[in-house]
Amino acid sequence: ILLAHTGVSTVRNPVLGDYSKFAPAMDKKVWAVFSAWLDIILRGDFEYSVVKEDGKNVAKGSCERVLYAVGSPAEDAGCRAGWELPETLPLSWQAVYDALKPNKESNQ
């Protein structure tokens, strides 16, 4: 298990323009090595959504912490170990354990 604080880095994209991305707060070269070894990458955060208010995008959040298991251009997350994880999980060891249990119905 590797735990790291989250930082924000800039991804340089000459075609579509630069954008910000959540990334572990560590050297990019170190993260490149570690992420190549990891089977599961989860990112913890507060649950939030973005809504339009007065023509502006505003983030609305709660005090509920969740783990994001599906990545996007704005964050590293995912699972390549053969499990299908839900897009989000509650932030608890039991929730992760339950999501990783073999599914008895599919004989895994």
Description of the structure:
With 108 residues, the protein is α+β, with helices and mostly antiparallel strands. Helices cover 17% and strands 40% of the residues. It contains 2 helices and 7 strands. The chain has helices spanning 28-37, 93-100; strands at residues 6-11, 19-24, 40-41, 43-53, 56-68, 78-79, 88-90. The chain has a 3-stranded antiparallel sheet. A two-stranded antiparallel ribbon has the order 1-2. The chain is globular, with a radius of gyration of 16 Å. The mean pLDDT is 85.
Largest sheet: 3 strands, antiparallel
| Uncertain residue segments | none
Radius of gyration (CA) equals: 16 Å
Kindly state the percentage of residues in helix: 10-25%
What are the key terms here?
single chain; 108 residues; alpha+beta; three-stranded antiparallel β-sheet; two-stranded antiparallel sheet; 7 strands; 40% strand
Quick description:
By secondary structure, the protein is α+β, with helices and mostly antiparallel strands.
